[in-house]
From TrEMBL:
Entry-linked Pfam families: 4HBT
UniProt entry keywords in alphabetical sequence: Hydrolase
Coiled coil (residue ranges): none
SUPFAM superfamilies associated with the record: Thioesterase/thiol ester dehydrase-isomerase
Family as reported in the entry's similarity comment: Belongs to the acyl coenzyme A hydrolase family.
Gene Ontology biological-process entries: acyl-CoA metabolic process; fatty acid catabolic process
MF terms in GO: long-chain fatty acyl-CoA hydrolase activity
Species of the source: Sphingomonas sinipercae
Domain spans labelled HotDog ACOT-type: 4-116
UniProt cross-references to InterPro entries, sorted A to Z: Cytosol_ACT, HOTDOG_ACOT, HotDog_dom_sf, Thioestr_dom
Protein name: Acyl-CoA thioesterase
A Gene Ontology term for the protein's cellular component: cytosol
Length: 126
């Protein structure tokens, strides 16, 4: 994912209910935020409803702490006939904005859906 002038799709601060026994944020919570952001980007590209069908690769790089500001970045990396691969990266900003670290990344696959919730073609030219 290029660093030049990228904007987060989603920004959120985890709360006390999102913390695990080790004092870090649950991996499932992070995964949900990534799925939300990826779905936004995929839905825009597909110009309609999409569904997550696979997480091809997921890597947790560093833990997220309570009070970190989480920024989720997503970009369509590939487009097939009915599906899209969306690269998703999460950074955590801490120390009142003094530190930003990459905490996780993954490649999610979304399928475009028609009105009957069946796969439909994605316009390759969009």
């Amino acid at each position: 994912m290029t660093e030049a002038h990228r904007e987060p799709v989603l920004r959120v601060v985890p709360g006390p209910t999102d913390i695990n026994a080790n004092g870090h944020i649950f991996g499932g919570w992070v995964l949900a935020q990534m799925d939300i952001a990826g779905g936004i980007v995929a839905s825009r590209r597909a110009r309609g409803a999409v569904a997550t069908v696979a997480i091809e690769r997921m890597e947790f790089i560093s833990p997220i702490d309570l009070r970190d500001l989480i920024s989720v970045y997503a970009v369509v990396e590939r487009v097939g006939r009915t599906s899209m691969g969306v690269r998703i990266e999460v950074t955590a900003t801490r120390d009142r904005g003094a530190t930003e670290i990459k905490v996780t990344e993954g490649l999610f696959t979304f399928v475009a859906l028609d009105e009957n919730h069946r796969p439909r073609a994605v316009d390759a030219a969009a």
